[in-house]
Each structure stands twice: as structure tokens, then as C-alpha cells.
Amino acid sequence: MKKIIVCFLLIAVCRNLSAQDAEKLHFKSVLADTHNDFLSKSVEKGYAMDADLRGKTMSDLSRWKKGGVDIQIFSVWCDGNMKNPFSYANIQMDTLYAVIKRNPDKIALAGNTKELKRALRKHELAAMFGVEGGHMIENKLENLDSLYKRGARYMTLTWNNSTPWATSAMQETNGKNPNPKKGLNDFGKEVIKRMNDLGMMVDLSHVGEQTFWDAIATTTKPVIVSHSSVYALCPAFRNLKDDQIKAVAKNGGLINVNFFSGFIDSNYEKRNIAFGLKHKTEMDSLKKINPEPYFTDEFLYFKYPQEVQYIRPPLSMLIDHIDYIVKMVGADYVGLGSDFDGINSGPQQLDDVTSYPLITKALLERGYSKKDIRKILGENFMRVFKANCK
Predict the structure, then answer these.
(1) Residues 22, 112, 97, 81: is their CA dihedral positive or negative?
(2) Domain assignment present for 189
(3) Would you say residue 166 lies in a domain?
């Protein structure tokens, strides 16, 4: 009996030490998240990033600190139906500038490696913008230049809607491509070249396969895939196929895995549909108030948290996507692109930006070396950022 008790005590001690090791490693590492949608939510709902937003959003300034986030790229987004999308992009940027002005000791804009290192040294959140959708430049290179000057350090060539110069994954897949041909046209290639010259990373999340290959053939700098996961594990239309994963690695770029349940677990959608059917009467009533899917999803997910917990995939499935990329091309080409505040469901336990330490712990438990974990958390991003932005 004594031996059994001693054995249990040793196991408990080892687990405690493992948790302490993970926490120490996590907060000593640089953590970069390449995609967070707080800004559009801020504009739509009037949320202030430096307020306590627990229960309202997945992110706020205080919680980024608690999660050990050092670098955050803020998505600047609108859908393809927005009138004057360039103007709307600037409105979203203004909201972050206001937060920085109010909190100069907590958050700083980082436009190059010197500014990035300064923010890290001062323990400030290093912030930059990622423009999610080439439609926001309104087919003008001068608008691209303007967004860069304001702090945009990547642009996703398309969102779900195609532009006149690049086709999206959604519209290449559903057969509703509005362009004469798939991929980039001559102006699209000019956009890539201007981005390379400026020092703006080319982001290939959301783009169609032909656009992906045209961009890889055109760029002279490492690309990023800011928030996409692995097609072989979850065949969602904008996850990356094996040949694309290999191409990003050959380019020296970076794939940042997306936390959305529907891009992690191929069975999530079935469970989500069943959840919707169970609450169909309520859902139909909500649609009369606001037809946007995010409105009904947010309301029902908040009302029925226990049911929602059941339909979410386990954290281990997110780690499977990281594993897949590492086993295929190595630990130098994978990072994190959460999509927090742009998703209604992530893996279990990953409820908000304070939960990043669980990823570090899970990677340690999978047998990853501390060196490789540091790469995945942020060093890989810093390498690609430096190669583009100097």
C-alpha cells in the first residue's frame, strides 16, 4: 500500500514539474499570432480593446498579456459587399491607433525588426496590421502603399470573394469565379511585386489553388499563410494540400494553423448541423432579427455552452495539424494563426487568448524539443518578418 501511495505521489510531482516547465518555457519564448479579428468586432460593436471584455470577446489588452502573447497581427477585414472598403480599412486601423495612444507602455506598432525588438525588450505587445482581402485596396497600388505606411505588414490576396485580379478558394471551389481565368492576372502579379518591394508579406490564406501557385511563382520573398490548416486532416476548401505545404516550405515561408473547429475536425460540421436542427425554431426567430450567421451562432453558442463544448474538437486535433506539417517539412515552417474573435468555435480549452500556454504544454507532451517549440510559437514568424520587412 505504501509503495502505491509513493508511486502516485511521484506521478503527481512529475506532472506538476511538467506543468511548471511548460509555463516557464511559454513565458520565456516569443509568441506571435498572425491573425486576430478583434478590430472588425470593435468597430461593429463599439468594444474598446483596453477594457475588460471577458464574456464579450476572446481578446483584450490585459488577456493578451496573461496568455503570453508578444506579437499580434490584427486583421483589417470586411466582406466583398462593403462599399468603400479602403475607407473602412482605415477606420479599423484608427481604432488600434487610439488604443496605442492611450496605452503607450502596453502596446506599440512594430513596422520593422528594429521596432519589433524594441517592443519585445520593453515587454509591450508588438502590433501590426494584416489586410484580409485584396478587395480593400480597390484595385489601386497607391491604396496598397497607403495601408503599408499605416502599418499593414501583410495582405491576404483574397478573402472568400475574388478580386478582379485574383481568384479566391471559395469561388474557385464553388464554380462561381467571376474572372475569365483562375489565378492572378497581370495586375495581380504587379500587386505581388509591389508588396515585395514595400516589405509587405504576401498572405496566401483564402486564395484559390491557381492563385496560390501563381503567387508562389511571382514572389521573391517568403510568403505566409496567416490562418489555414491541413487539408489531408480536414478537407475544408481553404486548408492547404500536401503539395502546397511543401511549396511554402521550399519558398522559406510559414503556415500558421487556424484554430477554427471546422478547419481542424472534419466531423465538426455534422455535429454543428445537428446542434442547429435541435434549436431550429429559435434559430429561425433569430434570423428574422438579424440574418447574418454570426448573430445566431453567437447567441446560441452563448446560451447553450455545455452543448457547444460537446461539438468542439479536442485540443489534440489542433496539435495533429502542427504535427502533420512538421513531419512533412520540418518545424521551421509552422506557426499559430488563431483567428480568435473571427471564429465562433475553437478546440476545447482554447476559449480565448489566455489559453495559449496549453499549446506549449501539449507540444512538450508530444515530445517536441524546447528549441522547436520556440520556433513554432514565434521564432519562425520573426524569421519571415525579417526576410520581408527588414
Answers:
(1) negative
(2) yes
(3) yes
Q: 350 by DSSP, 3-state: which?
A: coil
Tell me the average pLDDT across 12-20. 57
CB burial readout 336-357, b (16+ within 10 A) else e: bbbbbbbbbbbbbebebbbbbb
* Listed residue (137, 182, 177) closest to 156, CA to CA: 137
Predicted confidence band at 2 (pLDDT cuts at 50, 70, 90)?
low
Q: Are 29 and 377 in contact (CB under 8 A)?
A: yes
Residue 223 has pLDDT above 60, yes or no: yes
Q: What is the pTM of this model?
A: 0.93
Question: In 3D, which of 188, 198, 126, 201 has the Cα closest to residue 156?
Answer: 201
**Widest Cα–Cα separation across the chain:** 77
Q: Region 162-176: what's the mean pLDDT?
A: 95
Our count of domains for the chain comes to: 1
In a domain, 281, yes or no: no
The H-or-E segment that residue 175 falls in is: none
- Separation of alpha carbons 131 and 121, rounded Å: 26
Q: Which of 250, 231, 264 is nearest to 343 (CA)?
A: 264
Sign of CA dihedral 300, 305, 311, 314: positive
> Is residue 291 in some structural domain?
no
C-alpha cell belonging to residue 70: 508578444
DSSP state of 134: G
CATH of the domain at 250: 3.20.20.140
Q: In this model, does residue 260 exceed pLDDT 90? A: yes
pLDDT at residue 6 in the model = 45
Up-side HSE of residue 266: CA atoms within 13 Å toward CB? Answer: 11
Look up residue 44 and give its three cell numbers: 461593429
Q: Of 200, 219, 213, 10, which is closest to residue 111 (Cα–Cα)?
A: 200
- Nearest by Cα to 57 from 40, 71, 78, 82: 40
The answer to whether the beta carbons of residues 60 and 125 sit under 8 Å apart is no
The domain in which residue 382 lies consists of 29-265+313-389
Rg of the chain over Cα atoms, rounded to whole angstroms, equals 21
Instruction: Tell me the CB-side half-sphere exposure of residue 315, using CA atoms within 13 A.
Output: 15
The rounded mean pLDDT for the chain is: 94
